[in-house]
Structure formats: C-alpha cells, structure tokens
Amino acid sequence: MRDMFDAGPRLARLLASHQRWLLTQVAYALSMERVDGDASSGLTATALTSEITAFKAASRNTIRSYIDEVATYKFITCVPGEERKRPRRYEVAETAQQAMVGWVWSNLLALDVLDDGDRAERFRANPGWIRMMQPRIARDCLRDPAWREPPKRVGLFMWNDAGGLIVDYLMSRIDPEDKHPDRLFVGPIDSRALAADFMISRTHLQRLFAKATQDGFMGWDVDKKKPPLWISRAFVEEYCQWQAIKFAYVDQAFHAASEMSGKQ
Question: What pTM, to 2 d.p., does this model score?
Fold first, then answer.
C-alpha cells in the first residue's frame, strides 16, 4: 500500500480506510460489469448504494459524497455519450484502472511469497483476468461479516482515515523474530513527520495511538533514552488472521479466473 501511496496519495487513500476500501472495491466491480446496450448495468450511484446499504457498510449520504469525490478527482468519468442521461453511469479512469491492477498483483505476489507460487507472474501475463477476479473478490469480501467487520482492535485503525497506511507502516517496522513474549518493537516514532507523510493531522494520529495504548495493545518502552513504540503480538496475530480472509478470496478468484480461461 505504501508504494501505491507514494505513486498517488489521493488514489491510495481510497483503500486506506476500511469503509472506503469496501466502496472502492464494489464501485470498481460494478464498472467492470457494464454491458454495452444494457442501461441497468455498470457503475451508478444507485447501483453502488443498493449493494453497499444491503450490508449496512455505509449510509446513502456517505456513498453520495464518495461518488462526488472520486468524480471530482476524475478517478471516474461519465460513460462517453451518456453525460446527459440519468442516472449517470461511470467508467473507471485509466489511472484508477492501473492502480487496481497493481493492487491485485501485489496481493498475488504476497501469496507467492508464502508458497513460492507464480500467481503474480501469470496474472501479469494475463491482465484481462482482472475483469473476472476483482468483482468476485469485492463481493466475497463485502458479504463476509468476518472481513466486513474487522476485530475491534484492528477496526480502531481500519475504520479511520489512513488507518490502513498506518498499520502497513507499523507492520513494516517490526521484527517477527523478536524474542519478547508479548511485544513486537516498531522503534522510535516521529508522530509529526508520520502524520505529515500520510496527510493526516498530528492530533488525529495521536488520538489513535492514545486509544490503542489505553486498550493495551500499543505503548512505549519508557526505560530507553529514545522510547521505542511497541505493538502487542496479539494485535499482530489478529490483524494477520483478518488479512488472511481477504487473501483467501484473492487466491480463490485467481484460480477461478485461471480455470475459466483454460490456463491452469
């Protein structure tokens, strides 16, 4: 996620909080499913609202604001020739297309690291698989309450703006081989620099860290000259188990696309 953020911060933030992640994935899926000549297909505010509100994942006002925002930044545009039609149908802009392809590829690469597979390489050789894979990933994740509703400690970050970026950063700093029985050390943190880096307020970041500290799964080793930040092993394990749900759906979608294309 950090690489995506560095390439395009506004685009990456569409996947950096869990609610926006769900909205973005389903919106992209609807766009992929547009059929020429079928006015009821594709991405419209009405279609996105219908799918998202069925699972109470966002309010109608939130969805409307989301559509307005991504249209303002031109991540979606009206389908050519349909600018005056209602409801408006949108297609995903090329930059957003590339970002989603990159997101799927990076998840496949992560799976390959675990089992020495070749999913990412095969996906790169068959980019059209995105049309089969992504809608399935989006719907499977939306429909699964275990993914849709993260565990409380994970949700503290993931429901917040840029929460996914923050957790991704913390995970990148820990040493899984650390011998401490309960804690994994992140190291010293400059909250001002980190907040500026992720384009959030320092106050917002400090509130998140304060709440995590209050809940007992984050803290600082005050015995050191430069107190390092630590996160609990229980939190890391919970986060990894939650992420495993998504990775399972990505893997299933990959194999389904492979079978459908006859390239097993």
Answer: 0.92
